[in-house]
Each structure stands twice: as structure tokens, then as C-alpha cells.
Amino acid sequence: MCAMVSRHNTGMNATHVPSISSPADYTQLFALAPVSLWLEDFSALKRLFHRWRAEGITDLRAHVAVHPECLAECAASLQVLEVNQRTLELFGASSQEHLLANLSQVFRGDMLDHLAQQMLPMWDGEMGFAVQTVNYTLDGRRLDVKVQARVLQGHEELWDRVMVSLQDITQELQSSTLLATSEQHARNLFDYSPVSLWVEDFSAVKRLIDEVRMRGIEDFRTFINVHPEFVSRCMQEIRVIDVNQQTLTMFGAQSKAELLAGLGRVFQGEMRDSFAEQLIELWQGKTTLMREVVNYRLSGDLVNIHMQFAVLPGHLAEWDLVLVSLVDITARKKAEAYLEYLGKHDSLTQLRNRAFYMDELNRLSRKGPWPVSVPVMDLNGLKQINDEHGHVAGDALLRRAGEVLGKVAAPQACVARTGGDEFAMLLPNTDERGAQATIDRIHSVLELNNQFYSGHKLSISIGMATCGASDQLEAALIRADRAMYVEKSRYYQEQRIERRGHNG
Question: Are 133 and 110 in contact (CB under 8 A)?
Fold first, then answer.
């Protein structure tokens, strides 16, 4: 999370602002990056490409299709120069030497099949590539990884310095901080990071927190609850020193100036509460933080973000150099929300499912509010339609039933599909009169639905019961179920009489 800052807090007009220009700072950024980073030498690959072109090869795709063994020659030409600590942790290596000595275990199996996707863009003149492939840890575990590579600025002629990042998408843990050994080298690492990176100065925030501590405050959470203006003040005192290109892309900004001028739109709404929790953790002495937050693109679109915050070593006394990495997890959050929806809803009718209905039934049985009315419903003739016209027609009828029941239900009501052709409602704080009004609305909407659809007629048998605080909700369900079957028997009796009348 990059907390809200004032528009002038760019780190450029202050009397003294910490810089990230020293090689030592960028070395720390590289070594401590939370994503796997590899510095590699592709110069032998470029020489190999030059030889192939001299031999008359113009279409590498066609050449690989006929001679797949050439991919092994490509793989052998790549040289690993340096890896970071996260790489060692990811692959289960005790040291860089340990990892490099066992690269054949890391790059095997499916890896070679994906190598062509990596080589082809560079054959075509690109200075990098992005692919999804498979690696293996030293203990044999499969890793699905997203690989992004870029020839570093100043090395385009020889390809002798290529930065490669691996994001472990097996567990959807993406984050990065890029560090370097020299100013220009580190600048490239920072700019070409595949995740959003912010370098910030939290020194003013630390001074504010220290002032509160010196006043004898011990319960910091209560303090900021009583003084919400303190949180706002801290947010305004944060200085953004730098952001990378991925940050501009993530938030839809054309330039750093545009992004910094629009930070009020980026950090809004739920952001303040998240930042308050971050301040509490800083108060507790935590200088490395991880959390999920919500930001907004300049367009106004919500972005779910996994944030990692770290005060860099050597700056723990002042908090004047902080690295924040942001990973867009919006797609993951949407998937989680959809899975949660499926866990509570019937996919065919979009009503609540039986599991949710039973949970709500148990909750109302304990707490009310009373009285509670329980209409139970059953579709008439569904089996016949399935037998004579197929389950597609039957499913269409069930979806129509979902439409009808969903339209008539009050916000506090629970409407669920509890079985194949069975539905039920839970109407809290609703007496018999209110429940009957709901049933009347069902019949009215049902009639309109049948007028709108020209296919099979939708018919529902309904039974209802009401219970108070002293009654058992389960007993009311039994009464409602019996009433529904009485109505259902009446329906089929009328159908038989009608058929006999037509036949006579």
C-alpha cells in the first residue's frame, strides 16, 4: 500500500530527500526482492542466432519445427551470472553455487517445450520476452512460473546482461523489488520490474509516531480512533521518491507527474482504514508488512492489491527509505468472490442453495426475529416435461421459477432452491398476513411470466406456515410441506379432470 500523499510530495522540492542513487541501496533492493530474480548472459545465444542466419536460416519457427534439437543448443548457450535470495528459497537451494550446480534439475521436462516461446521474440528483434513455463525445485516439486526477461539498457548490442524475473503462479504469490550494484544497473532493474514498485520516505511519519509515544500514549489504537486526524496527517506526510513503469501501467497514468497529481483518486475510500492498521503495526515495531488493500486507477476502476512494505536495512532508524511493492490481485479476488457466490447460490436459478438455506434456518431458529413464515414450493409437471421434452426444457422452466421467486422476495427474505424441483422461503418478522401477501405476489408474477414466455406453462404448488418465538421452526416447515402437497394433489386432480373433459 502506498499511502495517500499530497500532490507536492514528490520528493523533488524538499531541502533534503533521501536518494536511491547509491549502489549499496540498489544492491539491497536486488538481494531482498520478494520475487525470484536472475541476472543472465545471453551473448552466446546472440552469437548462435548470428551463425544460424549466416547458414541461411530465416524462419526460426520453421527451423525449430523440423529440428527441435536446436532448442537444447539454445538452452546451453544461456549463462546464469547471479541470483537473489528469493530464488534460493523458491528452489530450495542452500547457496547460489548449490543452485547453479543443479540447474539440470530445475530446467527439465516441460521446460524445453516452452523454450521456443522465449527464443522466438528475441530472434525477431525484441529485447525481451514474457512466457509461462514449468520449473522444478531441487526436491522435485513442480513450479508453474511466469517468466519475464529484458535486456538491460546499455547491453542491447551484446545481450550480455539480461534481467529475468520468475513469478510463482502456482501459489499466486507475486511481488517484487528490484535491486542493483550500480546506479545505472539498478535504474534498469527498478524500471523494468514486472510489479509496481514505490520508493517512499516515511521519516515524517516516524517522527509523528515518536511524538505520540513520548506523550506517554500506550494504547495507540484507541488514540487514532479518538484522533482520526492523526491518520490523515500521517498520510499527507509520506513522500513518494520514485515509482516504476509498471506502476504507471497499473494505475493508468501516462507519466509520473500525472500519477502523483492524481494520488487523491488512487488512495481513497477503504484506503484510510488499511493505512490506520499499517500505522498500528509500525507502532508495534514491525518494519516489514504484508497485507491486501484496495486502490483505484485514475479512471476510477477498483484495483485489489497485495502490498509488501519494507523499511530497507540501513534506514531503520529514520524510515527514510521504504520499498513498497504492489501486485494486482483483482482477477484473483473476483475469482474468490465468484467461488464464494457459488458456495451460497444455485447455479441454475441464481437463488440461494440448500446449504445456505439450512444455515439461515438454524440462525432464525435461534434468534428470530419472530414471527417467521415459511412458504415451501414445488414445480408442477417438471418430471413430465423432462421425460417428454428433455432436461433442457426442464432447466428452462427452473430458471423461470428462479426469476419469479427472485422478483417477489423482500431484501430480508431467504429464497432458495432446496431440491430438484423444490423451493422454499424464509420470511423473518412476517406474520401469516404478510406471508399470504408474498404468495399472492408470486401468483401475480407467475401469471405475467407465463404471458411473457410462449413455451411450457410454469405452475407452482405452494404451502405456508408461520411460527412464533415459542414454536419450533422445523414443525412449521412440516406443516408448510403438508399444505404444499395438499395443493399439489389438488392441481393434479384438476389436471386429470381437465384431460377427461377434453377426451370426452
Answer: yes
**Angle, alpha carbons 23-24-29 (nearest 5°):** 95
Cβ atoms 20, 152 nearer than 8 A = no
Check residue 349 and give its pLDDT.
Answer: 92
Same fold across 1-11+19-27+174-340 and 36-170:
yes
**85: pLDDT strictly greater than 80:** yes
Here the cell at position 297 is 486507477
**Whole-angstrom Cα distance, residue 146 to residue 167?**
5
User: Domain 36-170's class?
Assistant: alpha beta
State yes or no: pLDDT of 321 exceeds 60. Answer: yes
pLDDT band at 181 (very low <50, low <70, confident <90, very high): very low
* Segment 98-111, tens digit of pLDDT: 999 998 888 876 66
C-alpha pair distances (Å), 389 with each of 253, 378, 385, 386? 56, 19, 5, 6
Find where cell 504507471 sits. 248
pLDDT value at position 183? 59
Residue whose C-alpha cell is 534439475: 105
∠ Cα 443 374 467 (to 5°): 135
* CA separation for the pair 240, 260 (Å, rounded): 8
The C-alpha torsion from 282 through 284 and 289 to 295, rounded to 10°, is -50
Query: Mean pLDDT of all residues in the chain?
Result: 85
CATH number of 345-503: 3.30.70.270
Cis bond leading into 68, ω under 30°? no
Query: CA 480 to CA 465: how far, in whole Å?
Result: 5
Give domain limits for the chain: 1-11+19-27+174-340, 36-170, 345-503
Integer Cα distance of 329 and 388 in angstroms: 48
SS (H, E, C) 363-387: HHHHHCCCCEECCEEEECCHHHHHH
The architecture that CATH gives domain 1-11+19-27+174-340 is 2-Layer Sandwich (3.30)
